[in-house]
Amino acid sequence: MESLDLRVLADVLSWKQAGHRVTLVTVVETWGSAPRPAGALLAVRGDGLVSGSVSGGCVEDDLIARIKAGEYDQLTGPSMVAYGVTKEEASRLGLPCGGTLRLVQEPVQSTDWVEQVLARTSAHQLVARTLSIKDGAVQLRDAQRGEALKFDGHTLTTLFGPRWRLLLIGAGQLSQAVAQMALMLDFEVLVCDPREEFAHALHMIGVTRVLGMPDDVVTDIRPDAHTAIVALTHDPKLDDMALMEALNSAAFYIGALGSRRNQSTRKARLAEHFGLSEAALSRLHGPVGLHLGAKTPAEIAIAIVAEIVKVKNTAQQSPGEAVALSSLAIGDARDSACAAG
Question: Do 30 and 78 reside in the same domain of the chain?
Fold first, then answer.
């Protein structure tokens, strides 16, 4: 599940605690050019306020109108609804040609499961939630990476969390630009820089400064498959400390600033002094970022964040989808002017 959908659950919790009636809507199946994938969430408050999305907005408008009209007042358990079943309805709702959505809508009665999901995902756990369509009973369990949404008409199992996380080594101007863009993509952003003269300049809402040396910080955060690590100090003493731990971790993306020449020297140094294997070194994205011919810190940040998103999304695709995505990807070369040095 996308971490943005965790915001939906946070809104559900706050609305229920304030005494509002809330309906949670989940996309369970799509056909054709559906605007949102299976698992996408929408919460609708009794007064029509919404959080999240299941379409481009037209389905939301219909759901809001029905809820405000009182059609859901007597809804005591989960039920299913489909949109875009006919060409006429798809046209009326503004769905893409042939697009069809099948949704499960449920009145939120208890918030116990919501609180548990938010707490467990905040601790970087992956949680599976199973909903019984018959009686609305909810069960939570630990999930494994690679599991997918399941719906058989009787039970719906969805996955929650953990939030995508980015650790930046270095707090300079480039790191600040990368952090700002990552925040817009709803990454949890951590920054490590033991150099006080740089770290003091980092004042961004939503960014957490992690104290300590880079190697200790990487070890302490326990990188998982939802973690990206990027070394941007251009100081081998600091960047290498982070990389020697990161390249043997489960992080889905590891990158480092520097030219091709510098990266070659870096890999030889990491192998000789820290004993990193060829397999571990092959995981390093360097020069970091897509080759966009970037020159300014903002342009370089776009290249870096774009590559992180590309790797993140490719990792979530099935093998066939990943091949198709790869064939459309921007070239493999990454030694643009942004990485010179």
Answer: yes
pLDDT of residue 313: 86
Q: pLDDT digit string (tens) for 175-232?
A: 999 999 999 998 999 999 998 888 776 778 889 999 999 999 999 999 999 999 999 9
Q: How far apart are CA 318 and CA 321, in angstroms?
A: 5
Indicate if 14 and 113 belong to the same structural domain: yes
Whole-angstrom Cα Rg for the chain: 23
Give the confidence band of 89 by pLDDT, cuts at 50, 70, 90: low
Interaxial angle between packed helices 214-221 and 236-246, expressed in degrees from 0 to 180 and rounded to the nearest 10: 20
Q: Does 33 share its domain with 170? A: no
Domain count, the chain: 2
Q: How many residues are recorded in the chain? A: 341
Strands 253-256 and 284-285 come out as parallel
Residue 173 DSSP one-character state: H
pLDDT recorded at residue 336: 39
Residues 227 and 114 in one domain: no
How many helices (H) does the chain have, and how many strands (E)? 12, 15
Domain ends where: 160, 185, 220?
A: 160
N-term to C-term CA, the chain = 38
Judgement on whether residues 132 and 198 belong to the same structural domain of the protein:
no
Range of the domain at 202: 165-339
C-alpha span between 284 and 286 (Å, rounded): 6
Euclidean distance between CA atoms 198 and 194, whole angstroms: 8
The pLDDT-based confidence of 37 (bands split at 50, 70, 90) is confident
Q: Are residues 122 and 236 in the same domain?
A: no
- Global pTM? 0.74
